[in-house]
Design a protein that fits this description.
By secondary structure, the protein is α/β, with parallel strands linked by helices. The chain has 11 helices and 8 strands. The chain has a single domain, classed as Alpha/Beta hydrolase fold, catalytic domain (Rossmann fold). An 8-stranded mixed sheet has the order 1-2-4-3-5-6-7-8, with helices on both faces. Strand 7, helix 10 and strand 8 form a beta-alpha-beta unit. Helix 4 crosses helix 5 and helix 6 crosses helix 7. It comes from Streptomyces bathyalis.
C-alpha cells in the first residue's frame, strides 16, 4: 500500500470539526442504563477455571458475563499463576471478523504480570452469538451495515455495550485491581477501547488504542481500499445512491471522534501511514480530538494495518510502567 493519505505534518494537526448527534450522550446513557438493569436480572458473571489446560504458568478462566440485553458474552481471563493479587488488568477487544479464539493464543500480557481479559465479539467469535430480535435491512454486506436503518438496532450498539460491560464486570474479580483496569485493542478492538475510554469514565485507568477502526467513519468510507469501510461504500453504491446522509447519521452514534471528545483517561495511540484499512487521517482525527491531556501517538511510517506489531507492544508495556500501571506499580485502593 503506497502512502496515499496526508503528509505526516498535516496529519499531526488534522482535526475535522464534525458534530455528534444532538442526543448522543442521552443515547449512550440510556443504552448503558438499560444494559446494567438487564444484567441485574440475568445470571451473574461466571469465571470457572479450566482444569485441563496444558499451560503451567497461567490460570485460565472460561468467562461468561451479561452484556447487551443481559445476553451472555464469552471471554478468557488469564491470571499469572502464583501472582499476588490484585493485579493490573488488560481488557482486550478483538479486530473485525475475529473472536477470543483459543486461550493459548493470548499469553503475552499474563507473561508480563498482568491479568488479561480477552473479550469475544458477538456474531464474530464462535462462542458469542448475536441474537438481535429486530431484523436489519434485507441487504447486509457485513457488520457495518447490520441495522444501518437506525442507531437503535445497529450492530455496534450491541458490541460497544458488551465492551463497556466487560470492563465493568472484570473490576469485581478478586484477581483484579479495580483501579488499574486498562482497555486495549487493534483496529475494531482499538475503536472499542476508545469508546470504553469515554463511556466507562474513570472505571478504567488508561486506553491502548492501535490503528483504530470506527473513527471518522465517513472519511474511512471514502478512502479505505480494504477491510470493513468499503462495505459502506458498496452498500451506498448499490442501494442508497440518493440518500447517503441517513446511513452516516446512523453511524455517527458509533464514531470514535465523538467518543474521543469525551475521553477521561490517559491513552497511547498508534497509527500506520501505509494502512489500507484504517487510513491514517482517521486515526489522527481521533487522536487530535482526544480530550485527556495525557496522550501520545506512535507513528509507524511504513506500517500497514498491522501497525507496529511487537514493537508497539514494547511501547505499551513501557508506557504503562511509566504511569504506575504495571505489575510493580502502586495498587489502587478503590
Amino acid at each position: 500500500m503506497p502512502l496515499t493519505d496526508m503528509p505526516l505534518e498535516q496529519l499531526r494537526s488534522y482535526r475535522p470539526e464534525t458534530a455528534a448527534p444532538e442526543d448522543f450522550e442521552d443515547f449512550w446513557a440510556g443504552t448503558l442504563s438499560t444494559a446494567r438493569e438487564a444484567a441485574r436480572a440475568a445470571p451473574p458473571p461466571t469465571f470457572p477455571r479450566i482444569t485441563d489446560s496444558p499451560l503451567r504458568t497461567v490460570d485460565v478462566h472460561d468467562v461468561r458475563f451479561p452484556g447487551w440485553d443481559g445476553q451472555p458474552v464469552a471471554a478468557w481471563l488469564l491470571v499469572p499463576r502464583g501472582a499476588d493479587a490484585p493485579l493490573p488488568t488488560i481488557v482486550n477487544y478483538i479486530g473485525y471478523g475475529g473472536g477470543r479464539g483459543l486461550h493459548t493464543e493470548h499469553l503475552l500480557w499474563s507473561a508480563a504480570g498482568y491479568a488479561h481479559l480477552v473479550v469475544d465479539s458477538r456474531g464474530q467469535g464462535h462462542a458469542t452469538p448475536d441474537p438481535d430480535p429486530v431484523p436489519g435491512p434485507h441487504y447486509v454486506g457485513g457488520f457495518m451495515t447490520r441495522g444501518i436503518d437506525g442507531p437503535e438496532h445497529h450492530y455496534y450498539r450491541r458490541l460497544i455495550t458488551d465492551a463497556v460491560r466487560a470492563a465493568e464486570t472484570v473490576r469485581g474479580h478478586p484477581a483484579v485491581d479495580p483501579a488499574r483496569v486498562i482497555v486495549t485493542g487493534h483496529s475494531q478492538g482499538g475503536g472499542l477501547a476508545l469508546a470504553v475510554a469515554a463511556l466507562a469514565g474513570t472505571e478504567v485507568a488508561a486506553a491502548l488504542i492501535d490503528v483504530p477502526f470506527l473513527c471518522h467513519i465517513r472519511r474511512g468510507a471514502e478512502l479505505a481500499v480494504a477491510g470493513p469501510y468499503p462495505e459502506i461504500a458498496h452498500y451506498l453504491g448499490v442501494h442508497m445512491r440518493d440518500d447517503p446522509e441517513s446511513v452516516f447519521s446512523t453511524l455517527d452514534y458509533f464514531d470514535g471522534l465523538h467518543f474521543a471528545r469525551r475521553a477521561a483517561v490517559p491513552a497511547l495511540f498508534s497509527v500506520a501511514l501505509m494502512d489500507p484499512v484504517c487510513p491514517p487521517s482517521t486515526g489522527f482525527a481521533a487522536y487530535n480530538h482526544y480530550a485527556h491531556s495525557d496522550k501520545e501517538v506512535v507513528v509507524w511510517q511504513f506500517g500497514d494495518h498491522g501497525g507496529g506489531r511487537g514493537s508497539q507492544t514494547l511501547h505499551q508495556l513501557r508506557w504503562l510502567e511509566g504511569r504506575g500501571l504495571g505489575p510493580d506499580g502502586a495498587q489502587g485502593t478503590t
